[in-house]
Fold each of these.
Amino acid sequence: MSLIVQKYGGTSLGDVERIQAVAARIEGYCKQGHRLVVVVSAMSGETNRLVSIGRQISVSGHYPREMDVLTASGEQVSAALLAMALQQRGIKAKSMLADQVKVLTDSVFGKARIQKIETQSLMAALDGGYIPIVTGYQGVDEHHNITTLGRGGSDTSAVALAAVLGADECEICTDVDGVYTADPRLVDAARRLDEITFEEMLELASLGSKVLHPRSVEFAGRYKVPLRVLSTFNKGPGTLITVERENMEQPLISGIAHARDEAKVTVTGVPDIPGIASKILGPISAANVEVDMIVQNTGADGLTDFTFTVKREDFDRTLALLKPLCEEIGAANLAGDKEIAKVSIVGVGMRSHAGVATKMFDCLASENINIQMISTSEIKISVVVAEKYLELAVRSLHSEFGL
Ligand code: ASP
Ligand code: MG
C-alpha cells in the first residue's frame, strides 16, 4: 500500500466549502487504497491577518517567540476543521500539532529549521486507521517553545514528513495545476511541465517562482523525495519534481523566473583597495538585509564602482546604512533604483550547450531592453532590467527559447 503525504495550501482551505471539497478529495484517495498523511496551511489570508494584528500590538519591540505562538495558530484552525470535515464523512482522521507529532526544530523563531521528526505517534495514528492532519509551518524546540519555519514553510513541513516516513510521494496540492515554463499571468504561451529536476526547481523557486518554498525543494532533493505540484480541484498529473534522468527530455531552458521585488544600489568612485567590499556589505548583512547580485567594476585610476541588489522592502534601510559609510570611505556617489526586475532563465540543458547567454542577450537586445546586471551559475542566467520591460523580456525569451 502506498503512502502519500499531501499538503493543502491556504487557498485550498479558504472557506468551509473548500475544506469540504478537500475532504472529498481525500476520501477519493482513501478509496483507492492509499495511506495518507495530510499537512495543512492556514486558511488563505489568515497568516497575514495574524502578522498584522501582532504588529499593531508590538509597536515598539520585537517578540519573536510570541509572534510564532500567534501565527502558528492559523494552521491549528485548518487542521481541526479538516479533521472534522473528514469525520463527518465517516473517515477516521485526527489533527496533530507539531508538538504532538514532534517536529523538533532549532530555536530561531520565525525561521526555524527542522532538526528531527519523530515518527512514532504518526505511525501509531496510521496503524490505528487514522489520517493524521498535521499542522504545517510550525515546530517545537527542545524547550517546548512553539517555532515557525518562515512564510510558506508548510511545503517544507510536508516534504520533511515525507522524507522521514519514506513516503512514495509528496503532493503539494495548490491553486495552480503545476509548474509552468513561465508565469502564465505574464505569458499566454506558458505551459505546464510534466517533469523538472530538483536542481532546476530550486533555482526557479529561489529566483522568484512562487509555487514552492525553496527550502522544501532543497529538502526534497537531498532526501530524494518525489515531489508533485498539482491542483487541488482540477484533475491532472501536475508537475513531478525529480532527479535528473538520462532519458529526460532536456531542452536548453526549462523555465523562466522573474522577481519584481528587488532594488539596486550603486556606490561609485570607491577606493579600489582590499577590504572595500566587506566594508560596504558588512553593515548591511549585519542588519540582516539579504544581498542578492553583486557586481564590482574593474578599477580605473584607483577607483571602482560597486553595485548590488536587495529586496525592495530593504531598500530605504540599505541606503540609510550606506550613507554615513560612503562619507567615511570617501565614495563619490550613492545612488539607487527601485524600478528594476530580475529575469532568469533556468535549465540543466545549459550545462552541455555553449551560447545560451549570447542567445539570451541577443534576444533582449533585439527588443531594445538594456541589461543592467548579469549573474550566472551552472544552470541559470539572471539579468536585471528596468521593471517596465519585465513582461516584454519574459515573453520574448519564452518564444526565443522555444518554450
Ligand atoms: N501559513 C503560512 C504562511 O502563510 C505557511 C504556509 O502557508 O506555508 O506563510
Ligand atoms: Mg504556500
Note: The pocket of magnesium ion (ligand 2) is lined by residues 9, 152, 155 (CB under 6 Å).
Amino acid sequence: MTILVFDSGIGGLSVLREARILMPGHRFVYVADDAGFPYGDWEEKALQARMSGIFDDLVARYKPAMIIVACNTASTVILPLLREKFSFPIVGTVPAIKPAAEQTRSGQVSVLATPGTVQRDYTRGLIAQFASKVNVRLVGAERLAALAEDFVLTGKVDEAAVAKEIADCFIERLGARTDIVVLGCTHYPFLTNVMRRLAPWPVDWLNPAEAIARHARTLVETPQQVEVVQDLAEFTGGRPQPDMERFLSGFGLRLVAGET
Ligand code: DGL
C-alpha cells in the first residue's frame, strides 16, 4: 500500500523517519512542495487552493491508502478539505500543545512554529481546549524552516540567526521559567541539537513525529508480509540540486519527476 507523506520541504522527513520504523511493508512516497516553500507566509485561501490541486494530482497518480500531511502549516488549512474529498485516512500534524500542557512543571510553555501556524485559529483552538491552565507563548519564526533546510543539506548553520529565532521562547515569570518548547514545524527537529546548544537554559523540545506515526499506524492495515519496495520522493519544483538528491538517496528515497 502506498502512503503519501507531504510537506513544503524536507521537514516532513522527520515524520517519515518514524513512520518507516513503525509501519514496515508500506511504500512511502515523499512529496515536497518546494516550489511553494516556505508555507509560513502564505495567505490561507491561496495555500488551500494550491494544495488542493497538488493533492488531486497526487491521488490520481499514486492511489494512496493514506496521506500524512507532515507539515503543521499545511495541516492548519487543508485537513477538513482533504477529508471531505477522499475516503481514505488523512493524518495531520498538530503542534504538541496537549502533551506539553500535561508535562510542564513550571506552567510556562512555548510553541515555536511558522508565522502562519501561530496566527491560525486552529492553533489557538488547541490552546483553548487543552492548555487553558498553562501560560502558552506563541513564537512565530520567520526563517527557521529555511535555516533547517540549509543545515540538513550543508551541515552548516548561521547560529546567530537560530539564536535570534528562538530567543522569544524563553521567558521567566515570577521565578518560573519556560520548561517546554513545542516544535510546531516539522523542519525544526533537524535543528534540535543546535537549538539545545544555543538555549539560555535547558528545556524539553517536543517533537510530535513519533506520535503522528503511531496514530497513522492504527489507521491502515498492517501488511502480512514485508515487501521490499523502493520509497520515492518528488519535488514540485522539478529536479532539486545534486546535494538534495544525495541527501534523499542517503535517506533511501529515489527521486522521481513529478507532474504537479
Ligand atoms: N514544515 C512546515 C511545518 O511543519 C513548515 C515549513 C514552511 O515554512 O514551509 O509547518
Note: The longest strand covers residues 2-7.
